[in-house]
Every structure is written in C-alpha cells, then in structure tokens.
Write a structure and sequence with these properties.
The complex is a heterodimer. Chain A has no helices and 29 strands. The N and C termini of chain B lie far apart (54 Å). The chains are: A mainly beta, B mainly alpha.
C-alpha cells in the first residue's frame, strides 16, 4: 500500500517522547514543515515538494541551561487556526509560541516551578488548536491552559484554566473533521488513562469524562474525528469511543508495546498508529450514522527495523503520505502510497 | 524531567560496574596451583568488591541520592563513578576506566530500551540488587546496608503509576541518547548491530498486561460484541510474560540486569601473562597491600599493550574529561554527592595518570613496600 521514499536528514536525533513529530503542509508554497524534539531543542526542517530543497532551523528551549537538564522540551506541534499557524513548544519551564516558520517567538508563558525540587515533575505537554481562536496546552499537574489567539500579532492571552484531570496531561486533540455539526470540540488524556471531552467557548464546558477501567491504563495519544475519540494506550491497545457518551465502539490489540503516536487523515478516515514495537500500522475508520456504529479495519503494516518509533504523522489530509521518527534516529522516514 | 531517576541510574550502572570488575578480577586471579601465596589474591578480590559496595550503599550517600532532583550531567556522573571505582585498593588507568564506563552505560542503555514495560526497569534494578546482595552475603554489615536500600527502592518506586515509570524511562533515554559504542559481548550475542544500534526483536513474549496484536473487536451501543476481525501482526509473538516479583525476594522473570559476564571465558593470552606474573610474585613475602601505592591494578583489556593502544586510538568524541567539581550554585548538589563519595575513598583524588604503568613498576613498588 505504501513504499519508502527518500528520508529527510535532521541535525540531531529524536528523543523518546510521545507524539514526537509534527507536520505542517503549506500548499501555496509547495512546502512541508516537520518538527522533531531532541532534548532541549527542536529540529525544524522545511522540505520542498519536488524533493530538491531542504532547509533547517533549530529552536532552543527558553531559559535552557546547557549544564543541566532542567529545561527539556516535551512536545512541539503546529496549531492550525483559520488566520494563522502557530508553532507551540512545551517544556519543563513553560510554553513558547512562534510564527509558523519558527522565526519569531510571539508568546511565552512560564510555568510555576517550585523553589526546591519536588518529587512531582513539572512540565507542559499536550497541544491542540481548538475552533477558530483557541490553543490549549496541558500541564503535569493535570490542569489545562486555554489561550485566546488574535488573528495576528502577539497579543495572546490566557483565557481560562481547566481543572478536571488529576494526573499529568499526556495529549490533547481537537475535532479534525472540519465538520461544524460535531458537539465535542476537544478531548484530553492523562497519565491514568482518563479522557475528558470538551466543548469550546468563552468558558470551556466538560461534556463527558471517560474513566479507564484497567488499573495499568495509560493513554499516550488521542485523536477526535467525527465525534469519535481514538485513544492509544501503553498496553498497545487502541480504543474507539463515542465522545459525548463514552460508549466503546471498538477495541484493537494493535501493538506489542507502548503506543507513542496516533494520527488521522480527516478526508479519508485513515488512522496511523506507531509504537515502541517498531511497527507502524494503517487502519481505516468508517462511520455509519444510521446505526451509530464505527468500524475499524486493518490496512497495512510497516516495520521500521530496530527502531522504537516516537512519532508518526500523515503529511496530507487524505493520508497519501506519512512520516515517521524514532528514538536515536536522525532522519525522518517517509512513505507514500503506491 | 522525572526527579526520581537518579537512584535507578546509579544503582543499575553501579551493578553493571560490579559485574565487570568481578569478572576482570576473577580473570586476573592466580589459580591456587600456580602460585604459592594465592589466598591473598582471592581475598583481595572479595575485599575490593566489599569496599566498593560499602561505599555505594553508604547511608549518607544514599540519602542524598534519593532526594528528588534532576539527573546529573554525564561528566558529573562519570566523576562519581571514578570515585566509586577507586573506593578500594584497586587502581584503573584512564583507558581502563573509559572502557569500564562505556560497558556500564551501554549495558544499562540496552536494558532500558528492551524493558517490556516501563515498570520493569524496577525489576532490572532488583536483578542488580539481588546480585550485589550475593556478592556481600558473607559480610553482615554491608548486607544490612543493601537490605536497607531494597526497602528504600520498594518504598519509593512501587507506588508509582506506569505513566510515571515511562517518564523515568524517557528521562533515562534522553541521558543515553546518541550513544552507540560497540560492545564486544553484545556484538557476539547479536543483540547489537555493527553500527552500534541495538536489535529490537519483533518476536517473543509480549509484556505482562499486553495482548498479542491481531484482534479487532467491535461493539454495539449496549456493549455487546458484534464483530471480530483478525489481522496479520507482522511479528512472531509467542505469549504473555508473567509478572515478576517487586518485593525483596522473588523471581524477577525479566532477565535484563542479570550478570551477562558470568559465562565469559577468559582470554588465554592474558592468562599466560598472569601466570608469569604469579611465578614472579610467588617468590615474594606476602604483604597485604595497605597503602595506595601498592594498589592492586586491574586491566579492563586482555593485555597491557591493548590497554595502551586503546587509550591512544580512542576517538575524541568518546573521551570523558574528568573535571574538577566546582561548588558553584548550579553544581551544588553534584558537589555535595561527590564530596561525600570522596570522604570514603582510600585515596581522594583522580584515578591514576595514564603514564605507562608497566608490570615491572608495580612489582618494584610492591617490593619497596616490603
């Protein structure tokens, strides 16, 4: 179904972090941007579609002190809003926001770090653009920060703090189908496998909380598409839930190790899952509104030999191509449909 | 990231160091039939192991170690282990110390990478602890320190969730990032490729709590299973691992962290050299090496020549600069720990200089001490 393309070389290797790849497609300029986190730095590569031009940029974690490891970046992701794209970096010190090409930092939010070291780690993780103007970021305490983003400029403000989760946020996702009919706008996942479903607005509203039954549950990656939550777990399972009710549509014994990344191609319903077990799998989701059912079928496997995969994303809305990063790997591996 | 990583890093690296030193000390053991006063060599091996383990599990040191803190830099941690390796009469020169550290770190990196579940890092740590306990089983005072450390590990780590363990694992993987030093025992056993990267099998048992990939179950609105699909998982998975014991005693199930040097055959060439040394030494009076000058030297390589060659040919990017710890604000914690470690070494200070330290010099030094 897919074959391997020429890889993109990076300046440094990928760190073992969840969802460690973000892709931004810039059709008007025939470019695709990729970001991958390496410890306290972010590698940004821009690749022209003809495969001839590559340019690199590296972004540092703010207040990075080279001698210590206390300002590691947990995640970097683009937030696509109607009027602008913002690159968000979340670290142990706070949240940095840049214009989409990484050239200018437009906003910095510092986390409250205690004077003396506590047993509980402090960091920000989980990034999502919600509806027209919000960027949400999760915190290790379980809180979520909602930022209001103007059409242009740096007058970004903290609009709300959502306190629902009690454990560290692992991932956030917003409804990606583009449909305005969906009630749920965002889903958040935490360390103990709990999922919260939200409606955005001046005040975000909690629509549903989906607790996890299993004791050892840990959800590392989550997506929301056409009102269905797709969650990837540390046990290697993928589960599909109806967002507003929490009804389980499907359960897949998908991987033999921790799932590190999920992605959905919104136009085709293709789902990408990647795990520490070296495998990337492609699935297909079909919704049947009449029966309120969701079906998932397996389409394809790709084994990235001797690699613990930490990021996998589709490069376009149809799922025609996808890219993969792995721990200790200094390249972004790409695949396209045959 | 995780502020609970340092104790696990230290104990596991320390455990690997002890395995390697134990194996090398045994390889340099003089067999009873070849030397007259062989007992003191065997005793000194035990003494070296006891001295190092006593220092490793010193109460004050562990108290400092278990405090919530960020991981040390690579240089700072290397200095701690330099001090630890010299907490006894044993002496290592620069090349041997470098090689020791390479072996230790690559071994633990391998164990962290291949842990089936993040939580199993604790089982790996218990494997090291079990072996350490066995090294000192005849010395009650050290044994009680080791037992106390078990209790601290259990107290600190067993309540953690799998998410917190995964954070610890990710912190460790960042520490080991980009290290691809080739280790001969790994290359031989085909767990490491010639490019230095570890082999990650897509076969064997899946971790405890995971299902073998291949099944899709779909449900109706009221929770009834309505459809099942199977898919090819592309691997060769054979079953589910049992859960190992997280208590002071018990079967750990996971083999990572056990002594992989136990069945290594010693190098016959080295053995011949040592036999000659034994014959030379056999004619001397027994003198318990009491001062640092006559320290029992250990070579991590098969021969002295190999050791010297390794030092010369060692690529720059692999060299560890042993730095002087400055008690500046940033390095406060590091300084504290290193200072405590320094109080317990026989000879406070850096390891031996790398100047040629031939067998002849050692013997002369020993004779001077008579």
């Amino acid at each position: 179904m897919y074959h391997k393309e020429k890889s993109i070389q990076m300046k440094s290797s990928a760190s073992a972090l969840y969802n460690n790849l973000s892709v931004l497609r810039i059709a008007p300029r025939s470019l695709t941007y990729f970001t991958v986190v390496h410890a306290n730095m972010v590698n940004m590569v821009s690749a022209s579609w003809d495969g001839l031009n590559y340019s690199h940029r590296q972004l540092q974690s703010k207040e990075a002190n080279v001698a210590t490891s206390s300002s590691l970046i947990m995640q970097a992701a683009w937030c696509v809003l109607p009027s602008r794209d913002i690159l968000v970096l979340t670290s142990q010190k706070g949240i940095q926001m840049y214009e989409s090409d990484g050239s200018i930092m437009v906003y910095w939010h510092a986390l409250d770090t205690p004077e003396t070291q506590t047993a509980q780690a402090v960091f920000a993780r989980g990034i999502a653009a919600v509806r027209e103007k919000y960027i949400c970021v999760g915190i290790s305490s379980g809180s979520m920060l909602v930022f209001d983003v103007p059409i242009k400029g740096s007058n970004i403000t903290l609009s709300e703090v959502l306190e629902e989760h009690k454990e560290s946020i692992t991932d956030l996702a917003s409804e990606c189908s583009g449909s305005l009919e969906c009630i749920a706008d965002m889903v958040s996942a935490d360390d103990s496998g709990n999922l919260c479903v939200w409606k955005s607005g001046e005040d975000f509203q909690l629509l549903n909380k989906i607790p996890d039954k299993a004791i050892e549950a840990f959800c590392s990656s989550v997506k929301l598409w056409k009102g269905t939550v797709v969650a990837g777990y540390g046990t290697g399972q993928i589960r599909l839930y109806e967002a507003v009710t929490g009804i389980v549509h499907a359960e897949v014994n998908a991987h033999a190790r921790w799932i590190y990344s999920l992605d959905i191609a919104p136009f085709s319903g293709l789902l990408l899952s990647a795990a520490e077990d070296s495998l990337v799998r492609v699935w297909h989701l079909t919704m049947t509104p009449e029966t309120n059912s969701v079906e998932i079928v397996h389409m394809y496997n790709e084994c990235v030999t001797d690699t613990q995969i930490c990021g996998a994303k589709f490069c376009d809305g149809d799922g025609y191509a996808f890219a993969v990063t792995g721990y200790d790997l200094s390249e972004i591996i790409r695949y396209t449909q045959v | 990231m995780s502020s609970r990583t340092l104790p696990l890093l230290f104990i596991n690296l320390g455990g690997e160091m002890l395995y390697i030193l134990d194996q090398r000390l045994r390889a340099q053991n003089i067999p009873a039939d070849k030397a007259k006063k062989a007992d003191w060599i065997e005793d000194d091996r035990r003494r070296v192991m006891n001295d190092i383990i006593t220092t490793m599990f010193n109460k004050k040191f562990l108290e400092e170690l278990f405090k919530p803190q960020e991981l040390y830099s690579k240089k700072a941690l290397r200095t701690v282990f330099d001090r630890l390796a010299h907490a006894s009469i044993m002496r290592l020169n620069q090349a041997s110390m470098d090689k020791l550290y390479d072996l230790m770190t690559m071994a633990f990196k391998y164990q962290v990478l291949l842990c089936p579940r993040a939580k199993d890092i604790l089982l790996v740590s218990f494997n090291h602890m079990d072996a350490i306990k066995d090294f000192v089983k005849d010395t009650p005072s050290v044994l009680s320190q080791v037992d106390e450390t078990y209790r601290q590990l259990i107290e600190m780590y067993t309540p953690l969730s799998s998410g917190e363990f995964q954070l610890i694992r990710q912190t460790l993987l960042i520490f080991f990032q980009d290290m691809h030093i080739r280790v001969s025992i790994f290359l031989k056993d085909k767990v490491q490729n010639s490019n230095g990267r570890f082999v990650l099998p897509i076969s064997g048992p899946v971790p405890h709590g995971t299902h073998i990939p291949g099944l899709i179950r779909m449900f109706s609105c009221n929770g009834e299973e309505v459809k099942r699909l199977q898919f090819r998982n592309g691997g060769n998975y054979t079953g589910v691992l049992r859960e190992g014991s997280f208590e002071m005693f018990g079967e750990r199930v996971i083999k990572l962290g056990t002594n992989m040097y136990v069945n290594t055959a010693p190098n016959p060439l080295a053995k011949e050299e040592l036999n000659m040394l034994a014959r030379l030494m056999g004619g001397m009076e027994v003198q318990k090496p009491g001062n640092a000058d006559s320290g029992f030297r250990v070579n991590l390589f098969a021969t002295d020549e190999e050791e010297e060659e390794a030092l010369i040919s060692r690529p720059d990017e692999f060299s560890y600069d042993v730095i002087k710890i400055q008690a500046t604000k940033n390095q406060q914690a590091n300084a504290e720990l290193v200072k405590i470690m320094g109080d317990f070494t026989e000879e406070a200070g850096e390891p031996c200089s790398s100047s040629a330290n031939s067998k002849g010099d050692d013997l002369l030094a020993m004779m001077d001490g008579l």
